[in-house]
Write a structure and sequence with these properties.
- It is a single chain.
- The protein has about 450 residues and is of the alpha/beta class.
- It folds into 4 domains: about 130 residues, NusB-like (N-utilizing Substance Protein B Homolog, Chain A), CATH 1.10.940.10; about 35 residues, no CATH class; about 55 residues, Sun protein, domain 3 (Alpha-Beta Plaits, 2-Layer Sandwich), CATH 3.30.70.1170; about 210 residues, Vaccinia Virus protein VP39 (Rossmann fold), CATH 3.40.50.150.
- It is about 45% helix and about 15% strand.
- The chain has 17 helices and 12 strands.
- α1 packs across α5, α4 crosses α5 and α12 packs across α13.
- The termini are far apart.
- The structure holds S-adenosylmethionine (SAM).
- The site of S-adenosylmethionine (SAM) has 17 residues, from α13.
Amino acid sequence: MTNGINPREMILEILLQIEEGEHSHIAIRSALSKYQFLPRQERAFITRVCEGTLEYRIQIDYILDSFSKVTVDKMKPPIREILRSAVYQLRYMDSVPDSAVCNEAVKLTQRKGFYNLKPFVNGVLRTIAREMDQVKFPSREENLVRSLSVEYSMPEQLVERWLEAYGEETTEKILKDFLEEKPLTVRCRTYLNSQEAIVKSLTDQGVKVEPAPYLPYACHISGFDHILALDAFINGKILVQDVSSMLVAEAADPQKGDYVIDVCAAPGGKSLHVGDKMEGFGTVDARDVSQYKVNLIEENIRRTNSINVQAKVQDATIFDQESELLADIVLADVPCSGYGVIGKKPDIKYRVTPQKQEEIVILQRTILDRAANYVKPRGTLIFSTCTIAKEENEENMMWFLQNYPFKLESLDPCLPEELHSETTALGYLQLLPGVHKTDGFFIAKFRRK
Ligand SMILES: C[S@@+](CC[C@H](N)C(=O)[O-])C[C@H]1O[C@@H](n2cnc3c(N)ncnc32)[C@H](O)[C@@H]1O
């Protein structure tokens, strides 16, 4: 315990919030921001246990159900989360002795007022600590979907869909990659600063900087506590962005002086990148659906002093007549299921429903329909998502080609050679985690006829 704050109690509160529907990264960030004085090691422990417990929830529940008479779904929420986070530590964190994990879980059970459940928590955890190796996991031969689901802690319906779309080998690569820890990726704004100066500023503050794949200005950074305390961040020299997302501005290939509309822009990563590529010339109209979202874009515009990017509230499902046929480039980086970023936001995998999937495709098509109208003749439309669901990507792309006066245009002149393929020559790219060295992401480039 440090300064009266019990890390395991914080973990429990965060996990309960996530169970109630809060996004994991928001729940963790807001809890930690309340206790900024916590030592770095303790913050890292809290983050790791919360993220790990969530990432491995299906596997953890399988283990708990193998040892507990009360199944996980029948447990009281605080007990369930105490047990889940303890099993995560027992299985995946060698740094914490098993006895400490069990003792702390029992103490927390008592502190939360569940005196009568202390023996239960104690018994289940001590048995698991002793007999973890004897758990009989589902075998691939008997049931491939169930086996992959438990091994990689992914809901069966997603495993099933990806097996069908990508086959066993690729699906396993994707599933494995989602569980791997990754450093943060940033875009160095080399249009205003030299890469060397940016890297020096970071390393001077003790940050480890490594080149990220595919793009020379993309870096992996690690070994720091708060990004908000880094000079390169404060001064707008770096922006947090995955390489997959940086490829959108590469695919758009804006020219100085272009008029660009980004219909789903918040928090502004791609708009700002396009603005940088135009070196301060032209205009990027960065739009999003709410004032809250537009404030996020404005914050980034201010921090980066991006003079050619402007933000405004505009619902992309409502046709904006004033923009008709005006834009050289339209970016439609539409809201999506987010399956490509499950590695960073594990709660996404637990929120999947077939109904939501259908609704999201309808929303995407509505946005594409409106966005198409803003592209001037011979202009460019970039359609992108951070998902690996075919109905949101290839199927939407085909639907668009069949219904609108656009054709696909090769991405190869804009992409690094390592990413060239049959589909990039045609005009689209599906990045898959574990296959490519990025998040899962889709980009299609259309040109108006
Ligand atoms: C994938 S994110 C965009 C990320 C952004 N392009 C970037 O690079 O930082 C999708 C965005 O679509 C926005 N959105 C959802 N529905 C919308 C609508 N009807 N009109 C405009 N934006 C919408 C969301 O608020 C969200 O910011």
